[in-house]
Amino acid sequence: MYQGTNASSGIGIGTAVIVEEAELVIKREAVVDAEAEVKRFQDALEQTMKDTEALAADLATKVGEKEAEIMQGHLMLLMDPMLTGEIENTIKNEVICSEYAVEQVCTMYADVFAAMEDELMQQRATDMRDIKTRMQQVLMGVSSVDISALPAGSILVAKDLTPSMTAGINPAHVAGIVTELGGKTSHSAILARALEIPAVVAVKDFMSLVKNGDQVILDGSEGLVFVNPDEKTAAEYQEKRDCFLKEKKELEQYIGKPTVTSDGVSIELVANIGKPEDVEKVLQYDGEGVGLFRTEFLFMDRTAMPTEEEQFEAYKEVAEKLAGKPVIIRTLDIGGDKEIPYMGLKKDENPFLGYRAIRLCLDRKEDIYRPQLRALLRASAYGNIKIMIPMVTCIDELREAKALIAEIKAELDREGIEYNRDIQVGIMVETAAASLMADVFAKEADFFSIGTNDLTQYTMSVDRGNDKISYLYSTFNPAVLRSIKHIIACGREAGIMVGMCGEAASDPMMIPLLLAFGLNEFSMSASAILRARKLITGYSTSELQAVADKAMSFATAKEVEEYMKSFVG
Q: Is residue 97 annotated as a catalytic residue, yes or no?
């Protein structure tokens, strides 16, 4: 048995197929005509861009628009004049071949991205290495590995699975994916989940432990991989796989059913999204709206600020597609931990405690906040949009944001532009300060949404990306649970909606506690909605009170987790 990272749930059973890109030998070679070599590079660049567009279109058809945007991100990198200009200058100045110039420049950028603490930026390193390889393959006339024709029942084994490789996967034939590299947020993991293929990543040295034709079982929920398992193990996991597929099929019966507890409490079950295209998944899984639209994705992978009009069209599209269902849109939550060159943000020493989110937006009203708020207000005429302000720590921030919204409303009135005059303005409660002052905020905010990821981080003073102290990062810590309970109680006392858009909202062990606390809205990834609905409809909130009281009596996260694990079964 080998342990890796659980990347995409489910049981994969099949035959190992090792996928390796042909190793490219890149040598530094002088050229006679530098200008001709630059032209050769430009031709290869053009071809790589055409191939990338084709891959994006293929992914959009097979998987969805959201996943296709991974390849669109590659296209943005290929179009970046800074990157291509540096490659061309390297060819000219050093009079060397294109292959080596691409190697030199792209590797430099990839190393810079890889050294950053931000996980999203680290993923850019993978993107950069992928486009480097594909440009070199075009230059050298080498075909990329074709995994579209793998036989049925294949367990795909690779060092890493690049987006360009993943685009060729036939989900009907690939029973599972195992890679040596990657993490839960890597592109290979994201695409595996989108394709609903069980996957385990970060299995150290796995390529040397398996050969083509070996029988492989992987548990994508636990991160376990077995090679040539014994009969007992094979039978055990075949049964688990049958149960998993049966449960998945049974969840379909919850499409169209109301999310109501057994004692008649109605719950809003909504989804987190990052782009307008994500709405398709929300509708597919019968989401009752959007509890978090992360607008920062509209600002990334670009060379200039999105215009008011561009933002308006994106927000309008979501509102229209959801046809009156609630759409909570979070204003820009970005800061010095994100590399967005056109914004001119300085690198913060403590980015999660620094110049970010509402602090940044209120400081840069004219070029960032006002255009976004105008776009949101204009789009509110087309659906049930609500505005959510992130990282609030003091009431002054909420008041200043609401004052600016009032100003923009007056502008729109003068211009004769329609908008929802009663648009709700709420806050994300994700800082210790906001939690402690929840009773004060509840008097001036129209709704709360608890961001458990950051609330846990700030409450416990723990960097969730630091492995050495990760044991402190748990939503089940009594301090975090007390905070959540307090926030919900303050919101309910004031008569406002309280939701949750952190990962805890879909945790089967957390859901009973949140129901007992009185949470109104649960927001999660679209694919988790039906399972959550099944759980919620099977509980009585009144009967859960005793469970919550018992859980709250424990002094450690471990004790709470063990108790909830035994309760859930």
A: no
